[in-house]
Amino acid sequence: MNWYSFLIIVHLIGTVLGVGGATFAEIFYLKAKRDGVIEPLEVDYLKTSYLVLRIGLFILIISGFGFLLFYRLSGYGGGLLNPKLWAKLAIVVILILNAFLIQIRKIPMWLGASVSLTSWYGAMILGAWRTLDASFISIIIAYVIAIFIVVGILELIKRYLKIPQ
Amino acid sequence: MSAFLSVFLIIHVIFGVVGIFLFGGVALNLLKQKPSFKILKWFSLLGFLGLMISWTISGGYYYVTYYGKAIKPIIQAGATPWVHSVIMETKEHIFLFLPFLAFLTMLIIWLNKESLIEKPRLKNMAAIVSFLIMVIGIAIILAGILISGTASR
Questions:
Q1: Interface pTM (ipTM) of the complex?
Q2: pTM of the model
């Protein structure tokens, strides 16, 4: 196995853990809020999901920088100026800042959850969509629109499941 | 670039990123009502060591022996010389905050466990310093990617 294949496998593991962790954190949160009380077992599930998510984020960041180093040392360093890469970096920075805002309760949960889910899925889509040829600004505009679409979807799910606000 | 310098560049980037990530973890943990001191102690110690290795052993050597001779002239002769004159100049001065802020945070955590529990203000201040390390670190990481990309264009 060469370094490139190794990095792809590690990056995929990080993505699976991160996207999966974010998805299950939201599912467990919605299920926990259904009866209006978050019980200790539900708190435990949520904590486990967040731990998996953070391990995924760590693996993703380290393997991501592994890719950047690989490109730099293989003579393809010009790719480091690719707008898709910078959009992905911006989304990861927003994801990290969002985690802080949620922790200090300075962002409403409906928005924080939506930013988290959209950022994880957005970063995954940008990584997988190799042929995408878009500017930094257009990717970020699409990302912001997607955040509000996810807000709407989560609101519809809450109404359908009769989850108290 | 020689294999030796390539290894130094890899160490510089990976240890720096890990150090910054760990201080992000320190800040998040300090913001909890009941932080885990076991995690805080390990994260702050390893984060500090990561930043020191990234700065002194690898980054410093790479900068002194390679950047000035091989990378700087390429950037200055290119279409965006400001990447050196503004971004690199800023990076090579602002990064100096990191090891010292990291050392300060590590000392607060290792020597003041009781005070951190009893005084929420001290805990919040330590969280702010850790958060600052992470924010400066992210800015430096982004600057590094821009510099590397410009030099290889």
A1: 0.88
A2: 0.90
